[in-house]
Every structure is written in C-alpha cells, then in structure tokens.
C-alpha cells in the first residue's frame, strides 16, 4: 500500500489495456484478482483491528475482488460477512465467488457491521446507481465506523469524476494497480477519503501522473542572482495582485524579481521596482515574464499583453490577460507559454466544452500550443504533447483571494529556474499546495506567498 505522489493515472480504457498487456505476458485474470483481493484484505485486516467486517459485492469484477477479500479475511480468522447485489456475472468473479463458503446476504436486508468494505462497483459502472442501492449504501455506511472502498467508491464515474449516485464519502479508497481520474477530479475525489495505491502486477505507465515533490535546481558556488532565474511581473490596474505574484516568485526561489510598472518603494524590499518601458520588457536576463494578475481588461492592457507576447520571453499568462488573448494567437506566437486559468477564465478563453476536466485541459493545450494549468480544487495540468499532471487534493482554504496570483509567481519562479513548462507548472502547483498545507487554516495570500520559502526548503 503506497501513497499516491507520482503515481500513474489511467482511464478505464487504459486500465483495461494495461490489464490485457499483463495477460499477454502470461498473467491470468484469476491470479490478478487474487492478488488484488489479498492486498486489499491485508489493508482491511490491519485497519479493522479484529472488528467485524461486512463486504458488499457487486456483479462484476469489483464484486469479485470483494469475495476474495472476504475469503482472505475469514481464512485469517477475522469475523466477516458478505452481502451481494445479484450473482457474479464475469468468469473471474464467478471463480472468486467459489472461494467464499459462507452465506451471502441480500444487499437491501444486510445487517450493518463496524467496518464496511464497498466492492459493489469500480471502473465498470455505466449509469447512476438505483435508489435502492443508494439507500443500502447510505444505511450501512452511516452505521459503520470505518468505510473502505475497493478501487473506487461505488457510484462515481472513473474517467470524469462525476457522481453517479455515490451517497457519502468513504474513509479510505484502495486504488488497484493505478489511480483513476476519479481519485483526483471533483466531485469524486472528495468522496474517496484517503487514497492509497495497491500494486496488482499491471504495468501502469501513462501520460497522466499525480504531481509529487519536484526536483528543483539548488544554488551552488557558481550561482548568482540572475542565473538563479530572473522573473519579471507586469503590474496592472490592481497593484496588489502583481505584488503578491512577485513576492511569491521570490519566496519560491527566484534569484531576482522585478515588478514592472511600479515606482513606490515598499515591502518586500528585495523586490526590484522598475518602470514598464520597452527597455525593461526587452531585458534579456528575464527568464520568465508574468502578465495578467490584477491587470485589467481595457485597451491599454490589451496593448500591454500584445507587447508581452511580442517579446521572446517564456510567459506565464494569468488572470485578466487570459481574457485578452486567443488560442490561435498563442499557437502562432509559440515559445514557452504557461496559462493558469480558473474555470471562468478557462471558459472565456477556450469556450464551453463537454468532457472531463482532463479532456478539456488536454484539448486546450492542443488548441493553444501552451501548457494549461486548469485550476480549482482539482487542478489539472496539460502540455501540448499530451502529457498531463493531476494535483492531489489541496487545502481547501486556498479558496481565498490572491492565491492564484501566488501560484502564478511560484510557477514563474520554477520556469525561470530552467524547468520545462510542464515540470515548472507541476512544481509550482506542488509548492503552492505544500505552502497551503503548512499555513493550516484561515491564511491569506500574503501568508501563502511567504510560506513558499518553507515549502521550497522542504525539498532540500
Ligand atoms: N486491471 C483491472 O482492470 C482489474 C480490475 N479489477 C476490478 O474490477 C473492476 C472492474 O470490473 P468490471 O469491469 O467487471 O466492472 P464493475 O465491477 O465495476 O461493474 C460492472 C458490473 O456492474 C454492472 N453495472 C454497471 N453500472 C451499474 C449500475 N448503475 N447499477 C447496477 N449494475 C451496474 C455491469 O452491468 C457489470 O455487471 C475494477 O474496478 C477492479 O475493482 C481487479 O479484479 C483486478 C484487476
Ligand atoms: N477549494 C479549493 N481547494 C484547494 N485549492 C483551491 C480551492 N479553490 C481554489 N483553489 C486553488 O486556489 C487558487 C485560486 O486561484 P484563483 O481562482 O485564480 O484566485 P485569485 O484570482 O483570487 O488569485 C488556485 O491555485 C486553485 O487551484
Ligand atoms: K467499489
């Protein structure tokens, strides 16, 4: 059982292909289900500390895992019962059912137990749960003191994270073989509780991965403030946003940060305030230029964004600037560009679209040729080459004004340090999430920007 940082994230189709690959190499489905079930049972056994376990088994292979779990717990002497929704209907699940030699209760009449294991549905759910199933899951879940989902909580769509009737969050979800998008995308992610990954012997390499602690360059004897990475931030109509962004860039490790368009000195004193003119914008030492935080959307600001696009700098485009560009314009400009839209900015720039957040982020990266950081409580990062990174659940107190400005600064700092745009975006999101974790509750964006120093130090 391991933590999820860096783990591959597979759609249902990719998971079935990975499983098929294992079978092509000589593995078989029954053996794989035995491995999955025994690994789950080991975790359930440890956590239940001898308390009675009720395993709910569905008709497919998720239910098959459930029978193996129950048989394994029984063999270990643990008190365990099974309640099922219909008979198994796959060969592998039928086989697993033969290993359970005790009675099977009907789901609707099952008596609760202190530990509930949900093996009703995993990646194969195809429509919303029936009301009677929702009612049984609710009743048994409320009566349990520990709820554990096998692969996924039953009643969520594996690929999109949409809710398909799942009534309440579980305490722990044991992801089998690889993570699925629903472990990270809302609303499903919030229903999964703590997510842990169990190895079941499939090769789970994928273009999508969970963000983990990044590798960032450390300063050495040869370092000076400019080669550590110089960030410039364009100041617009709302000065505070650009100040926050620039402050964040400094605390995330940039060697030199210039705020362009500011004249009055003030804290932080390490921030260099310069006029915003052609000479400042053309400074070849700038390794990443941020435009957008607190910018404003009037014609003067539009012209400013065009000047930024005309530069040769690597760009982080955030906030209002996302309303002043088009995907085609970005694609034509090329070069290193990171876009950091929240849902409203995403829709303004890329329009309304169907599909999961993962699909939409990938389509946006493809359309713009830029790396897209689609923010929210389930941030998704997509590069134009299809590589994708998903953020693990972050501190919900991040829903505070200015936290996006801080993120833009953190990402710019990592881009200026020489990381490629996908790695820089992922590193910035990680630092931002780690800073928020350290801040605890009711912090403000200024606290968050300063806490980036501790988040950065945690990596050394
Ligand atoms: N690599 C893999 O893919 C592995 C998968 N395993 C398990 O198998 C699961 C996938 O198994 P399946 O593909 O059989 O799918 P599931 O067991 O998730 O569900 C499919 C079954 O549920 C029925 N069903 C779907 N939606 C329903 C609804 N709303 N109401 C009532 N019935 C509904 C379907 O008709 C089908 O019988 C995984 O989540 C995992 O738990 C493991 O056994 C190990 C390996
Ligand atoms: N509920 C939440 N849980 C975790 N992170 C969140 C939540 N809400 C927002 N965030 C994160 O906080 C930041 C908010 O950015 P944004 O909406 O641009 O704010 P602002 O414009 O005020 O700076 C993003 O990084 C986003 O991913
Ligand atoms: K399940």
UniProtKB/TrEMBL annotation:
One Pfam family hit: Carb_kinase
Chemical reaction(s) catalysed: (6S)-NADPHX + ADP = AMP + phosphate + NADPH + H(+); (6R)-NADPHX = (6S)-NADPHX; (6R)-NADHX = (6S)-NADHX; (6S)-NADHX + ADP = AMP + phosphate + NADH + H(+)
Entry cofactors: K(+); Mg(2+)
CDD domains registered for this protein in UniProt: YXKO-related
Any one GO BP annotation for this protein: metabolite repair
Binding-site residues, AMP: 375-379, 404
Subunit structure: Homotetramer.
Main function: Bifunctional enzyme that catalyzes the epimerization of the S- and R-forms of NAD(P)HX and the dehydration of the S-form of NAD(P)HX at the expense of ADP, which is converted to AMP. This allows the repair of both epimers of NAD(P)HX, a damaged form of NAD(P)H that is a result of enzymatic or heat-dependent hydration. Catalyzes the dehydration of the S-form of NAD(P)HX at the expense of ADP, which is converted to AMP. Together with NAD(P)HX epimerase, which catalyzes the epimerization of the S- and R-forms, the enzyme allows the repair of both epimers of NAD(P)HX, a damaged form of NAD(P)H that is a result of enzymatic or heat-dependent hydration.
Protein name listed in UniProt: Bifunctional NAD(P)H-hydrate repair enzyme
Species of provenance: Sphingomonas palmae
């Amino acid at each position: 059982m391991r933590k999820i940082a860096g783990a591959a994230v597979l759609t249902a189709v990719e998971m079935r292909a990975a499983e098929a690959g294992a079978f092509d190499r000589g593995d078989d489905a029954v053996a794989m289900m035995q491995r999955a079930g025994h690994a789950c049972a080991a975790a359930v056994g440890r956590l239940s500390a001898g308390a009675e376990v009720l395993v709910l088994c569905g008709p497919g292979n998720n239910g098959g895992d459930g029978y193996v779990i129950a048989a394994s717990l029984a063999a270990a002497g643990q008190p365990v019962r099974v309640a099922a929704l219909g008979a198994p209907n796959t060969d592998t699940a039928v086989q697993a059912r033969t290993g359970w030699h005790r009675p099977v209760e009907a789901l609707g009449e099952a008596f609760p137990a202190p530990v509930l294991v949900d093996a009703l549905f995993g990646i194969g759910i195809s429509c919303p749960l029936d009301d009677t199933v929702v009612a049984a899951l609710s009743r048994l879940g409320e009566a349990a003191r520990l709820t554990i989902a096998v692969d996924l909580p039953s009643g969520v769509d594996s690929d999109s994270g949409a809710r398909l009737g799942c009534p309440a969050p579980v305490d722990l979800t044991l992801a089998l073989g690889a993570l699925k998008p629903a472990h990270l995308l809302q609303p499903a992610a919030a229903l999964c509780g703590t997510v842990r990954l169990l190895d079941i012997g499939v090769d789970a390499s994928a273009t999508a991965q969970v963000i983990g602690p990044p590798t960032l360059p450390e300063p050495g004897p040869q370092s000076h403030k400019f080669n550590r990475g110089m960030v410039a931030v364009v100041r617009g109509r709302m000065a505070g946003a650009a100040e926050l962004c620039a402050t964040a860039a400094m605390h995330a490790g940039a060697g030199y940060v210039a705020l362009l368009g500011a004249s009055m000195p003030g804290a932080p004193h390490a921030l260099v305030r310069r006029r915003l003119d052609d000479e400042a914008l053309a400074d070849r030492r700038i390794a990443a230029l941020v435009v957008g935080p607190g910018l404003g959307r009037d014609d003067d600001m539009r012209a400013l964004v065009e000047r930024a696009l005309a530069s040769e700098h690597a760009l982080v485009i955030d906030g209002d600037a996302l309303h002043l560009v088009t995907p085609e314009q970005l694609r034509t400009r090329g070069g290193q560009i990171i876009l950091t839209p929240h849902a409203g900015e995403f829709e303004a720039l890329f329009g309304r679209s169907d599909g999961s957040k993962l699909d939409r982020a990938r389509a946006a990266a493809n359309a713009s040729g830029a790396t897209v950081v689609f923010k929210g409580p389930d941030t998704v990062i997509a590069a134009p080459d299809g590589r994708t990174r998903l953020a693990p659940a972050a501190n919900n107190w991040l829903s505070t004004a200015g936290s996006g400005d801080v993120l833009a600064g953190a990402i710019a700092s990592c881009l200026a340090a020489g990381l490629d745009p996908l790695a820089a975006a992922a590193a910035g999101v990680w630092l931002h999430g780690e800073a928020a974790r350290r801040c605890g509750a009711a912090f403000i964006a200024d606290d968050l920007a300063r806490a980036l120093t501790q988040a950065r130090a945690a990596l050394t």
